[in-house]
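Q: What does the predicted 3D structure of AAA+ ATPase domain-containing protein look like?
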Amino acid sequence: MASKGIGKCTEVLVKRIAGLRPAQAAGLGSALAALMVTLRMVRPFLPGLPRNFFRYYVGRLIKRYLRRALGFLDPCLTVNIGEYSAAGDRMRHSQVYDQAKAYLSARCSGQARSLWADLASHGSHAFVLSMSSREEVADEFRGATVWWQHFNPGGGAWEFYQLVFHERHRDLVVQSYLPHVCREGKAVMDRNRRRRLFTNYTGDRQIASWTYVMFEHPSTFETLAMDPAKKRSIMDDLDAFRDGKEYYTRIGKAWKRGYLLYGPPGTGKSTMIAAMANYLDYDIYDIELTSVATNIELRHLLIQTSGKSIIVVEDIDCSADLTGKRKKPPTMAPANSPPTQTLANSPPTDQKKVTTLTLSGLLNAVDGLWSACEGERIIIFTTNYVEELDPALIRHGRMDRHIEMSYCCFEAFKFLAKNYLGVDDHPLFEAVKELLQAAKITTADVAEHLMRKCADDNADSCLANLLKALALKGEAVLGN
Ligand SMILES: Nc1ncnc2c1ncn2[C@@H]1O[C@H](COP(=O)(O)OP(=O)(O)OP(=O)(O)O)[C@@H](O)[C@H]1O
Protein backbone atom coordinates (compact mmCIF):
# COMPACT_ATOMS: atom_id res chain seq x y z
CA MET A 1 0.00 0.00 0.00
CA ALA A 2 2.73 2.40 1.08
CA SER A 3 4.93 1.50 -1.87
CA LYS A 4 1.95 2.09 -4.20
CA GLY A 5 1.54 5.56 -2.72
CA ILE A 6 5.22 6.26 -3.03
CA GLY A 7 5.13 5.04 -6.63
CA LYS A 8 2.27 7.42 -7.45
CA CYS A 9 4.00 10.25 -5.68
CA THR A 10 7.21 9.55 -7.53
CA GLU A 11 5.35 9.43 -10.83
CA VAL A 12 3.85 12.86 -10.20
CA LEU A 13 7.23 14.18 -9.14
CA VAL A 14 8.99 12.81 -12.15
CA LYS A 15 6.31 14.12 -14.48
CA ARG A 16 6.77 17.49 -12.93
CA ILE A 17 10.55 17.45 -13.01
CA ALA A 18 11.23 16.03 -16.38
CA GLY A 19 8.17 17.34 -18.19
CA LEU A 20 7.81 13.93 -19.78
CA ARG A 21 4.73 12.80 -21.63
CA PRO A 22 2.35 10.80 -19.39
CA ALA A 23 3.38 7.37 -20.80
CA GLN A 24 7.08 8.05 -20.30
CA ALA A 25 6.45 9.50 -16.87
CA ALA A 26 4.39 6.46 -15.93
CA GLY A 27 7.27 4.19 -17.01
CA LEU A 28 9.81 6.07 -15.01
CA GLY A 29 7.41 6.25 -12.08
CA SER A 30 7.00 2.46 -12.18
CA ALA A 31 10.77 2.00 -12.25
CA LEU A 32 11.15 4.15 -9.18
CA ALA A 33 8.28 2.37 -7.48
CA ALA A 34 10.05 -0.95 -8.20
CA LEU A 35 13.15 0.51 -6.63
CA MET A 36 11.17 1.44 -3.54
CA VAL A 37 9.68 -2.05 -3.31
CA THR A 38 13.15 -3.54 -3.59
CA LEU A 39 14.44 -1.27 -0.87
CA ARG A 40 11.48 -2.28 1.27
CA MET A 41 12.28 -5.94 0.73
CA VAL A 42 15.87 -5.54 1.85
CA ARG A 43 14.86 -3.56 4.89
CA PRO A 44 14.48 -6.63 7.18
CA PHE A 45 18.13 -7.34 6.51
CA LEU A 46 19.03 -3.88 7.77
CA PRO A 47 17.59 -3.99 11.31
CA GLY A 48 19.25 -0.76 12.40
CA LEU A 49 16.86 1.33 10.33
CA PRO A 50 13.71 2.82 11.90
CA ARG A 51 10.37 1.30 10.84
CA ASN A 52 9.10 4.19 8.78
CA PHE A 53 12.43 4.99 7.24
CA PHE A 54 11.50 4.09 3.68
CA ARG A 55 8.02 5.49 3.73
CA TYR A 56 8.92 8.78 5.33
CA TYR A 57 12.58 9.65 5.02
CA VAL A 58 13.26 8.26 1.58
CA GLY A 59 10.03 9.75 0.25
CA ARG A 60 10.95 13.09 1.72
CA LEU A 61 14.50 12.80 0.45
CA ILE A 62 13.29 12.17 -3.07
CA LYS A 63 10.77 14.95 -2.92
CA ARG A 64 13.23 17.44 -1.59
CA TYR A 65 16.50 16.60 -3.30
CA LEU A 66 15.81 14.73 -6.47
CA ARG A 67 14.86 17.82 -8.35
CA ARG A 68 17.91 19.63 -7.07
CA ALA A 69 20.13 16.68 -7.88
CA LEU A 70 18.81 16.61 -11.40
CA GLY A 71 18.92 20.38 -11.59
CA PHE A 72 20.72 20.38 -14.89
CA LEU A 73 17.87 18.31 -16.34
CA ASP A 74 15.08 20.17 -14.60
CA PRO A 75 12.96 21.91 -17.21
CA CYS A 76 10.42 23.32 -14.76
CA LEU A 77 9.85 26.99 -14.08
CA THR A 78 8.05 28.39 -11.08
CA VAL A 79 6.09 31.57 -10.60
CA ASN A 80 5.22 32.69 -7.08
CA ILE A 81 2.16 34.82 -6.47
CA GLY A 82 2.27 36.37 -3.01
CA GLU A 83 -0.62 37.63 -0.99
CA TYR A 84 1.08 41.01 -0.73
CA SER A 85 3.11 42.95 -3.25
CA ALA A 86 5.33 45.96 -2.83
CA ALA A 87 3.79 49.34 -3.64
CA GLY A 88 6.48 51.95 -3.08
CA ASP A 89 7.59 51.61 0.51
CA ARG A 90 4.40 49.81 1.51
CA MET A 91 2.96 46.39 0.98
CA ARG A 92 -0.48 46.09 -0.52
CA HIS A 93 -2.82 43.20 -0.95
CA SER A 94 -2.24 41.57 -4.30
CA GLN A 95 -5.19 41.42 -6.66
CA VAL A 96 -3.49 38.68 -8.65
CA TYR A 97 -3.32 36.55 -5.52
CA ASP A 98 -7.04 37.01 -4.89
CA GLN A 99 -7.84 36.25 -8.51
CA ALA A 100 -5.66 33.12 -8.52
CA LYS A 101 -7.33 31.99 -5.31
CA ALA A 102 -10.80 32.51 -6.76
CA TYR A 103 -9.81 30.77 -10.00
CA LEU A 104 -8.40 27.77 -8.17
CA SER A 105 -11.36 27.54 -5.84
CA ALA A 106 -13.70 27.29 -8.80
CA ARG A 107 -11.55 25.19 -11.06
CA CYS A 108 -9.24 22.93 -9.16
CA SER A 109 -10.52 22.54 -5.62
CA GLY A 110 -12.13 19.25 -6.66
CA GLN A 111 -8.65 17.70 -6.76
CA ALA A 112 -7.41 19.02 -3.44
CA ARG A 113 -7.77 16.80 -0.39
CA SER A 114 -7.54 19.51 2.25
CA LEU A 115 -9.61 22.65 1.80
CA TRP A 116 -10.75 25.85 3.47
CA ALA A 117 -14.46 26.63 3.32
CA ASP A 118 -16.02 30.08 3.30
CA LEU A 119 -19.47 31.44 2.45
CA ALA A 120 -19.83 32.55 -1.17
CA SER A 121 -21.62 35.70 -0.12
CA HIS A 122 -23.11 37.11 3.01
CA GLY A 123 -26.29 35.32 3.98
CA SER A 124 -25.87 32.72 1.27
CA HIS A 125 -25.74 29.00 1.93
CA ALA A 126 -23.26 28.30 -0.87
CA PHE A 127 -19.63 27.62 0.03
CA VAL A 128 -16.42 28.58 -1.70
CA LEU A 129 -13.62 26.07 -1.19
CA SER A 130 -9.95 26.95 -1.44
CA MET A 131 -6.79 24.87 -1.11
CA SER A 132 -5.11 24.48 2.24
CA SER A 133 -1.43 25.03 2.68
CA ARG A 134 0.84 22.54 0.85
CA GLU A 135 -2.02 21.25 -1.26
CA GLU A 136 -1.16 20.76 -4.91
CA VAL A 137 -3.50 20.61 -7.87
CA ALA A 138 -2.92 20.29 -11.60
CA ASP A 139 -4.59 22.35 -14.30
CA GLU A 140 -4.76 21.90 -18.08
CA PHE A 141 -4.62 24.81 -20.48
CA ARG A 142 -4.45 24.44 -24.27
CA GLY A 143 -2.79 21.05 -23.95
CA ALA A 144 -0.26 22.13 -21.32
CA THR A 145 -0.29 20.88 -17.74
CA VAL A 146 0.62 23.20 -14.91
CA TRP A 147 0.72 22.61 -11.17
CA TRP A 148 -0.39 24.91 -8.40
CA GLN A 149 0.64 24.64 -4.81
CA HIS A 150 -0.39 26.79 -1.88
CA PHE A 151 2.12 27.77 0.81
CA ASN A 152 1.68 29.41 4.14
CA PRO A 153 5.23 29.60 5.48
CA GLY A 154 5.29 29.11 9.20
CA GLY A 155 1.51 29.47 9.36
CA GLY A 156 1.98 33.25 9.25
CA ALA A 157 -0.18 35.82 7.55
CA TRP A 158 1.81 35.85 4.30
CA GLU A 159 0.71 33.20 1.93
CA PHE A 160 1.55 32.49 -1.65
CA TYR A 161 0.70 30.27 -4.57
CA GLN A 162 3.41 28.60 -6.58
CA LEU A 163 2.77 27.82 -10.21
CA VAL A 164 5.03 25.17 -11.78
CA PHE A 165 5.18 24.44 -15.50
CA HIS A 166 7.49 23.09 -18.17
CA GLU A 167 9.79 25.69 -19.63
CA ARG A 168 8.52 24.99 -23.12
CA HIS A 169 5.20 26.50 -21.95
CA ARG A 170 6.79 29.71 -20.74
CA ASP A 171 5.23 31.96 -23.40
CA LEU A 172 1.89 30.22 -23.17
CA VAL A 173 1.79 30.60 -19.41
CA VAL A 174 2.99 34.19 -19.26
CA GLN A 175 1.06 35.53 -22.22
CA SER A 176 -2.12 33.51 -22.10
CA TYR A 177 -2.52 31.30 -19.05
CA LEU A 178 -1.88 33.88 -16.32
CA PRO A 179 -4.17 36.50 -17.94
CA HIS A 180 -6.75 33.73 -18.28
CA VAL A 181 -6.42 32.91 -14.56
CA CYS A 182 -6.85 36.58 -13.64
CA ARG A 183 -9.84 37.04 -15.93
CA GLU A 184 -11.62 33.92 -14.76
CA GLY A 185 -10.73 34.59 -11.13
CA LYS A 186 -12.11 38.11 -11.37
CA ALA A 187 -15.35 36.77 -12.85
CA VAL A 188 -15.64 34.32 -9.96
CA MET A 189 -14.95 37.13 -7.48
CA ASP A 190 -17.60 39.30 -9.09
CA ARG A 191 -20.11 36.47 -8.82
CA ASN A 192 -19.29 35.83 -5.16
CA ARG A 193 -18.89 39.46 -4.30
CA ARG A 194 -20.01 40.67 -0.91
CA ARG A 195 -20.79 44.35 -1.03
CA ARG A 196 -18.99 46.43 1.56
CA LEU A 197 -19.40 49.80 3.20
CA PHE A 198 -16.03 51.38 3.93
CA THR A 199 -15.28 54.25 6.24
CA ASN A 200 -11.96 55.96 6.76
CA TYR A 201 -10.12 55.90 10.05
CA THR A 202 -6.68 56.78 11.28
CA GLY A 203 -5.10 53.81 12.99
CA ASP A 204 -2.40 53.64 15.62
CA ARG A 205 0.27 54.28 13.01
CA GLN A 206 -1.44 57.56 12.06
CA ILE A 207 -1.92 56.40 8.48
CA ALA A 208 -5.37 56.97 7.09
CA SER A 209 -6.96 53.77 6.03
CA TRP A 210 -10.32 52.10 5.42
CA THR A 211 -12.31 49.79 7.58
CA TYR A 212 -15.48 48.10 6.41
CA VAL A 213 -18.65 46.30 7.28
CA MET A 214 -20.88 44.31 4.99
CA PHE A 215 -23.32 46.58 3.22
CA GLU A 216 -26.87 45.38 3.61
CA HIS A 217 -29.06 48.45 3.18
CA PRO A 218 -32.49 47.40 1.91
CA SER A 219 -33.16 50.54 -0.12
CA THR A 220 -33.66 50.01 -3.85
CA PHE A 221 -35.09 52.09 -6.65
CA GLU A 222 -38.26 50.05 -6.19
CA THR A 223 -38.64 51.38 -2.64
CA LEU A 224 -37.39 54.91 -3.32
CA ALA A 225 -40.21 57.43 -3.46
CA MET A 226 -39.68 60.08 -6.09
CA ASP A 227 -41.10 61.29 -9.33
CA PRO A 228 -41.08 58.20 -11.60
CA ALA A 229 -39.72 60.07 -14.62
CA LYS A 230 -36.85 61.48 -12.59
CA LYS A 231 -36.13 58.09 -11.11
CA ARG A 232 -36.10 56.48 -14.57
CA SER A 233 -33.70 59.08 -15.89
CA ILE A 234 -31.28 58.48 -12.98
CA MET A 235 -31.41 54.75 -13.56
CA ASP A 236 -30.75 55.25 -17.28
CA ASP A 237 -27.82 57.47 -16.41
CA LEU A 238 -26.38 54.78 -14.14
CA ASP A 239 -26.90 52.12 -16.81
CA ALA A 240 -25.06 54.23 -19.38
CA PHE A 241 -22.21 54.74 -16.95
CA ARG A 242 -21.90 51.08 -15.97
CA ASP A 243 -21.86 49.93 -19.57
CA GLY A 244 -19.75 52.84 -20.77
CA LYS A 245 -16.21 51.50 -20.48
CA GLU A 246 -15.54 51.63 -24.22
CA TYR A 247 -17.23 54.99 -24.57
CA TYR A 248 -15.10 56.56 -21.84
CA THR A 249 -11.97 55.07 -23.37
CA ARG A 250 -12.92 56.36 -26.82
CA ILE A 251 -13.49 59.93 -25.64
CA GLY A 252 -10.36 59.84 -23.47
CA LYS A 253 -12.04 60.35 -20.10
CA ALA A 254 -11.44 58.49 -16.86
CA TRP A 255 -14.30 56.10 -16.18
CA LYS A 256 -15.95 58.02 -13.38
CA ARG A 257 -19.04 60.09 -12.83
CA GLY A 258 -19.91 62.68 -10.21
CA TYR A 259 -23.35 63.18 -8.68
CA LEU A 260 -24.37 66.04 -6.45
CA LEU A 261 -27.41 65.23 -4.33
CA TYR A 262 -28.88 68.28 -2.69
CA GLY A 263 -32.00 69.07 -0.74
CA PRO A 264 -33.31 69.48 2.81
CA PRO A 265 -32.61 66.87 5.48
CA GLY A 266 -34.83 63.81 5.24
CA THR A 267 -35.55 64.01 1.53
CA GLY A 268 -33.80 60.73 0.77
CA LYS A 269 -30.21 61.56 -0.23
CA SER A 270 -28.66 58.72 1.77
CA THR A 271 -31.50 56.45 0.73
CA MET A 272 -30.77 57.28 -2.90
CA ILE A 273 -27.05 56.42 -2.47
CA ALA A 274 -27.96 53.05 -0.99
CA ALA A 275 -30.39 52.43 -3.86
CA MET A 276 -27.65 53.31 -6.37
CA ALA A 277 -25.16 50.94 -4.73
CA ASN A 278 -27.71 48.13 -4.69
CA TYR A 279 -28.68 48.81 -8.28
CA LEU A 280 -25.10 48.82 -9.58
CA ASP A 281 -23.82 46.24 -7.12
CA TYR A 282 -20.97 48.55 -6.10
CA ASP A 283 -19.14 49.03 -2.80
CA ILE A 284 -19.51 52.31 -0.93
CA TYR A 285 -16.58 54.34 0.43
CA ASP A 286 -18.01 56.86 2.84
CA ILE A 287 -15.33 59.50 3.46
CA GLU A 288 -15.50 61.45 6.69
CA LEU A 289 -13.60 64.53 5.55
CA THR A 290 -13.18 65.93 9.03
CA SER A 291 -10.97 62.93 9.84
CA VAL A 292 -8.71 63.54 6.87
CA ALA A 293 -5.75 65.64 7.91
CA THR A 294 -3.96 66.41 4.65
CA ASN A 295 -4.33 66.43 0.88
CA ILE A 296 -1.83 63.58 0.74
CA GLU A 297 -3.91 61.58 3.14
CA LEU A 298 -7.00 62.12 1.03
CA ARG A 299 -5.16 61.01 -2.09
CA HIS A 300 -3.78 58.01 -0.23
CA LEU A 301 -7.31 57.02 0.76
CA LEU A 302 -8.68 57.44 -2.74
CA ILE A 303 -5.91 55.41 -4.32
CA GLN A 304 -6.86 52.54 -2.05
CA THR A 305 -10.44 52.44 -3.32
CA SER A 306 -11.28 49.66 -5.72
CA GLY A 307 -13.21 49.76 -8.97
CA LYS A 308 -16.98 49.30 -8.97
CA SER A 309 -17.35 51.66 -6.08
CA ILE A 310 -19.24 54.74 -5.00
CA ILE A 311 -17.19 57.30 -3.09
CA VAL A 312 -19.41 59.44 -0.92
CA VAL A 313 -18.76 62.70 0.87
CA GLU A 314 -21.94 63.30 2.85
CA ASP A 315 -23.00 66.73 4.05
CA ILE A 316 -20.04 68.40 2.47
CA ASP A 317 -21.43 71.72 3.69
CA CYS A 318 -21.05 70.54 7.30
CA SER A 319 -17.36 69.87 7.07
CA ALA A 320 -16.40 72.87 9.21
CA ASP A 321 -14.88 75.56 7.03
CA LEU A 322 -14.32 73.16 4.20
CA THR A 323 -16.65 74.41 1.56
CA GLY A 324 -16.96 78.10 2.00
CA LYS A 325 -16.48 80.47 -0.88
CA ARG A 326 -13.04 80.62 -2.32
CA LYS A 327 -10.89 82.31 0.20
CA LYS A 328 -7.86 84.48 -0.01
CA PRO A 329 -4.72 82.57 0.93
CA PRO A 330 -4.82 82.22 4.69
CA THR A 331 -2.44 84.21 6.81
CA MET A 332 0.07 82.53 9.04
CA ALA A 333 -1.45 80.94 12.10
CA PRO A 334 -0.20 81.97 15.52
CA ALA A 335 2.65 79.77 16.58
CA ASN A 336 0.81 78.07 19.43
CA SER A 337 -2.64 77.88 17.90
CA PRO A 338 -4.11 74.40 17.76
CA PRO A 339 -4.13 72.57 14.41
CA THR A 340 -7.30 73.29 12.49
CA GLN A 341 -8.63 71.72 9.39
CA THR A 342 -9.46 74.10 6.62
CA LEU A 343 -10.23 73.68 3.01
CA ALA A 344 -8.96 76.89 1.56
CA ASN A 345 -8.32 77.59 -2.06
CA SER A 346 -4.57 77.77 -1.78
CA PRO A 347 -2.13 74.96 -1.16
CA PRO A 348 -0.52 74.83 2.26
CA THR A 349 2.62 76.83 2.75
CA ASP A 350 5.59 75.75 4.76
CA GLN A 351 4.88 78.32 7.42
CA LYS A 352 1.30 77.24 7.75
CA LYS A 353 1.49 73.55 8.16
CA VAL A 354 -1.87 73.69 9.98
CA THR A 355 -3.59 74.31 6.63
CA THR A 356 -3.63 70.75 5.61
CA LEU A 357 -6.68 69.79 3.61
CA THR A 358 -7.37 72.36 0.92
CA LEU A 359 -10.10 72.94 -1.59
CA SER A 360 -7.63 72.43 -4.40
CA GLY A 361 -6.61 69.18 -2.70
CA LEU A 362 -10.20 68.03 -2.75
CA LEU A 363 -10.67 69.13 -6.37
CA ASN A 364 -7.56 67.24 -7.38
CA ALA A 365 -8.83 64.27 -5.49
CA VAL A 366 -12.08 64.38 -7.42
CA ASP A 367 -10.63 64.64 -10.87
CA GLY A 368 -6.88 64.23 -10.47
CA LEU A 369 -4.72 61.52 -11.94
CA TRP A 370 -5.70 59.01 -9.25
CA SER A 371 -9.04 58.70 -10.98
CA ALA A 372 -7.27 56.89 -13.79
CA CYS A 373 -6.89 53.92 -11.41
CA GLU A 374 -8.34 50.75 -12.80
CA GLY A 375 -12.11 50.33 -12.69
CA GLU A 376 -15.11 52.58 -12.58
CA ARG A 377 -15.98 54.93 -9.76
CA ILE A 378 -18.89 57.16 -8.91
CA ILE A 379 -18.30 60.15 -6.66
CA ILE A 380 -21.24 61.58 -4.75
CA PHE A 381 -21.40 64.75 -2.72
CA THR A 382 -24.48 65.44 -0.65
CA THR A 383 -25.45 68.75 0.83
CA ASN A 384 -28.40 70.48 2.42
CA TYR A 385 -27.18 73.89 1.26
CA VAL A 386 -26.12 73.76 -2.34
CA GLU A 387 -25.81 77.54 -2.55
CA GLU A 388 -23.03 77.44 0.06
CA LEU A 389 -20.73 75.33 -2.04
CA ASP A 390 -17.86 76.67 -4.05
CA PRO A 391 -18.89 76.60 -7.74
CA ALA A 392 -15.56 74.96 -8.59
CA LEU A 393 -16.48 71.99 -6.48
CA ILE A 394 -19.73 71.25 -8.21
CA ARG A 395 -19.16 72.44 -11.74
CA HIS A 396 -20.16 70.07 -14.51
CA GLY A 397 -17.33 67.74 -15.33
CA ARG A 398 -16.72 67.26 -11.62
CA MET A 399 -20.26 66.77 -10.47
CA ASP A 400 -21.71 65.69 -13.79
CA ARG A 401 -25.27 65.45 -12.61
CA HIS A 402 -27.02 67.59 -10.02
CA ILE A 403 -30.03 65.87 -8.49
CA GLU A 404 -32.42 67.83 -6.37
CA MET A 405 -34.08 65.82 -3.61
CA SER A 406 -36.93 68.07 -2.66
CA TYR A 407 -39.95 67.97 -0.37
CA CYS A 408 -42.43 65.19 -0.83
CA CYS A 409 -44.60 65.56 -3.93
CA PHE A 410 -47.90 63.80 -4.59
CA GLU A 411 -46.25 61.20 -6.84
CA ALA A 412 -43.78 60.29 -4.10
CA PHE A 413 -46.61 60.18 -1.54
CA LYS A 414 -48.64 57.78 -3.73
CA PHE A 415 -45.56 55.62 -4.02
CA LEU A 416 -45.10 55.51 -0.24
CA ALA A 417 -48.82 54.83 0.34
CA LYS A 418 -48.60 51.83 -1.97
CA ASN A 419 -45.38 50.66 -0.37
CA TYR A 420 -46.28 51.17 3.27
CA LEU A 421 -50.07 50.71 3.28
CA GLY A 422 -50.65 48.67 0.16
CA VAL A 423 -53.22 51.15 -1.24
CA ASP A 424 -53.25 52.51 -4.81
CA ASP A 425 -56.09 54.90 -4.14
CA HIS A 426 -58.07 56.19 -1.17
CA PRO A 427 -60.81 58.78 -0.56
CA LEU A 428 -58.30 60.85 1.48
CA PHE A 429 -55.80 61.08 -1.37
CA GLU A 430 -57.36 64.26 -2.80
CA ALA A 431 -57.08 66.05 0.54
CA VAL A 432 -53.47 64.91 0.90
CA LYS A 433 -52.72 66.20 -2.60
CA GLU A 434 -54.09 69.64 -1.80
CA LEU A 435 -52.26 69.96 1.52
CA LEU A 436 -48.97 68.65 0.11
CA GLN A 437 -48.77 71.65 -2.19
CA ALA A 438 -48.89 74.07 0.72
CA ALA A 439 -46.93 72.09 3.31
CA LYS A 440 -43.26 71.60 2.86
CA ILE A 441 -42.89 68.16 4.30
CA THR A 442 -39.99 65.80 3.79
CA THR A 443 -40.37 62.29 2.44
CA ALA A 444 -38.95 61.05 5.73
CA ASP A 445 -41.83 62.74 7.62
CA VAL A 446 -44.46 61.35 5.26
CA ALA A 447 -42.92 57.89 5.53
CA GLU A 448 -42.99 58.16 9.32
CA HIS A 449 -46.75 58.90 9.34
CA LEU A 450 -47.55 56.11 6.93
CA MET A 451 -45.76 53.48 8.96
CA ARG A 452 -48.03 51.19 10.95
CA LYS A 453 -46.96 51.45 14.57
CA CYS A 454 -49.49 49.18 16.23
CA ALA A 455 -51.86 46.39 15.31
CA ASP A 456 -54.83 48.81 15.10
CA ASP A 457 -53.17 51.08 12.56
CA ASN A 458 -54.59 50.82 9.07
CA ALA A 459 -54.66 52.91 5.90
CA ASP A 460 -57.51 55.11 7.22
CA SER A 461 -55.82 55.95 10.52
CA CYS A 462 -52.36 56.48 8.99
CA LEU A 463 -53.71 58.77 6.27
CA ALA A 464 -55.76 60.69 8.82
CA ASN A 465 -52.60 61.19 10.91
CA LEU A 466 -50.73 62.37 7.87
CA LEU A 467 -53.49 64.84 7.05
CA LYS A 468 -53.25 66.32 10.54
CA ALA A 469 -49.49 66.69 10.21
CA LEU A 470 -49.87 68.26 6.77
CA ALA A 471 -52.43 70.74 8.07
CA LEU A 472 -50.07 71.76 10.88
CA LYS A 473 -47.15 72.11 8.50
CA GLY A 474 -49.25 74.10 6.05
CA GLU A 475 -50.31 76.51 8.79
CA ALA A 476 -46.72 76.88 9.88
CA VAL A 477 -45.62 77.63 6.32
CA LEU A 478 -48.43 80.15 5.84
CA GLY A 479 -47.64 81.66 9.26
CA ASN A 480 -44.09 82.31 8.08
N1 LIG B 1 -37.37 59.32 -1.25
C1 LIG B 1 -37.54 58.45 -0.24
N2 LIG B 1 -38.05 57.24 -0.46
C2 LIG B 1 -38.24 56.37 0.54
N3 LIG B 1 -37.93 56.65 1.81
C3 LIG B 1 -37.41 57.85 2.10
C4 LIG B 1 -37.17 58.80 1.08
N4 LIG B 1 -36.66 59.90 1.64
C5 LIG B 1 -36.54 59.63 2.94
N5 LIG B 1 -37.00 58.42 3.23
C6 LIG B 1 -37.06 57.82 4.56
O1 LIG B 1 -36.55 58.79 5.47
C7 LIG B 1 -35.39 58.34 6.15
C8 LIG B 1 -34.33 59.43 6.13
O2 LIG B 1 -33.92 59.67 4.80
P1 LIG B 1 -32.42 59.97 4.37
O3 LIG B 1 -31.49 59.69 5.49
O4 LIG B 1 -32.15 59.28 3.09
O5 LIG B 1 -32.48 61.51 4.14
P2 LIG B 1 -31.29 62.50 3.81
O6 LIG B 1 -31.78 63.44 2.76
O7 LIG B 1 -30.06 61.76 3.53
O8 LIG B 1 -31.15 63.28 5.17
P3 LIG B 1 -29.85 64.07 5.70
O9 LIG B 1 -29.62 65.23 4.79
O10 LIG B 1 -30.27 64.49 7.08
O11 LIG B 1 -28.72 63.10 5.71
C9 LIG B 1 -34.95 57.10 5.42
O12 LIG B 1 -34.50 56.11 6.31
C10 LIG B 1 -36.17 56.61 4.69
O13 LIG B 1 -36.87 55.70 5.48
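A (community wiki): The C-alpha coordinates above were generated from the sequence. The longest helix spans residues 170-191. The longest strand covers residues 144-151.
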